[in-house]
Design a protein that fits this description.
Layout: H1 2-26, H2 31-36, H3 43-53, H4 59-71, H5 85-120, H6 125-139, H7 142-156, H8 172-205, H9 209-216, H10 221-250, H11 253-258, H12 264-273, H13 277-305
Helix pairs in contact: 1-13, 5-6, 5-8, 5-10, 6-8, 7-8, 8-10, 9-10, 10-13, 12-13
């Protein structure tokens, strides 16, 4: 099964790479103009640049040239900065990855206990209040929450707010200040989804025959909840967490922009504005690749978490 899933993931990545390259090739804009810079550019110079960039070649030839280089780690050079794209992506991606991990940590730290508590008190007033609160988080866009957090922190808690990004190696405390609010802005809306799936999975799990048997044997409610019901409920929770994490990698554009973080999302927005086709394709493929790999890991974990899914 592992080999089959891996081959499917590789095939999907190849298909996505061609689709991304094709979309990038047909979007409006001329990469030769971006390289030439501002001002009037002679037509002869533009034609020369198009030839150098391979823009006159058929799309399949351009894709094969790009793919051959990508497989060896050569994603080409940015048409704007003339720096290797791989170096620019490697500089920006860790920021996005860290923010995604911190956001998921916040979501799980809040959503899991809230979901378990709501499930253990299903139908009660506390359950209804918690479910209403999760709906509030779900309905609140992350960029709106980000603005509210900035306004609140700058007024009442300036010690945890930083308006610019600081690297961990440069200043660990300053780094934590620069990523704390973004992580909350990302994680709080997701915690509502985690809480909802945890509650529904737990409520369903406690009706399983083996859980009823454990209750009949006199096991404590806490042990039944955590040792039996939660283990069964983990499968959909992990599946949702994987999907959310994969989508986060490509969904942090506004958050990185609002908090001035030098992540892949902000770099992608800048590249689109600069008509840096090569960087847009590379960054989008990295985002798609992370999503595919995360979902592959989730697929492989599923039978381990839920023995009923084993073949």
């Amino acid at each position: 099964m592992i080999l089959r899933r891996t081959l499917e993931a590789v095939s999907l990545l190849l298909e996505l790479s061609f689709l991304i390259f094709l979309v990038g090739a047909v979007i409006p804009g001329d990469a030769a103009l971006a390289v030439a810079g501002q001002g009037e550019v002679p037509l002869e110079r533009l034609n020369e640049l198009r030839e150098q960039l391979g823009l006159n070649d058929p799309i399949i030839v351009r894709y094969w040239t790009w793919l051959s280089g990508a497989l060896t780690g050569d994603l080409g050079n940015s048409v704007v900065s003339q720096r290797p794209i791989l170096a620019d992506v490697a500089r920006a991606f860790p920021v996005t990855l860290e923010l995604s991990l911190l956001g998921m940590a916040v979501a799980l730290a809040i959503g899991l206990p809230v979901g378990v508590f709501a499930a253990s008190h299903a139908g009660s007033v506390a359950d209804r209040v918690l479910r209403g609160s999760t709906l509030l988080f779900l309905s609140l866009p992350s960029f709106v929450l980000a603005l509210l957090l900035i306004l609140s922190a700058s007024r009442f808690l300036p010690a945890i707010y930083s308006s610019f990004y600081v690297g961990f190696a440069e200043d660990p405390i300053g780094h934590l200040r620069s990523v704390a609010l973004p992580a909350l802005a990302v994680g709080l809306p997701l915690s509502g989804q985690i809480a909802q799936i945890t509650r529904s999975s737990m409520v369903e799990a406690v009706r399983e025959p083996f859980v009823l048997t454990a209750r009949a044997k006199g096991l404590s409610p806490r042990r039944i909840e955590y040792d039996h019901a939660l283990r069964v409920a983990l499968s959909p929770i992990v599946t949702l967490s994987g999907l959310l994490f994969g989508s986060l990698i490509g969904g942090l554009l506004l958050i990185e922009r609002i908090f001035n973080l030098p992540g892949l999302g902000r770099a992608l927005i800048n590249a689109i504005g600069d008509r840096d086709f090569q960087f847009v394709v590379a960054a989008t493929l990295v985002i798609a690749g992370v999503y595919v790999v995360v979902n592959l890991i989730v697929d492989l974990l599923y039978p381990i978490l839920d023995p009923r899914q084993r073949r």
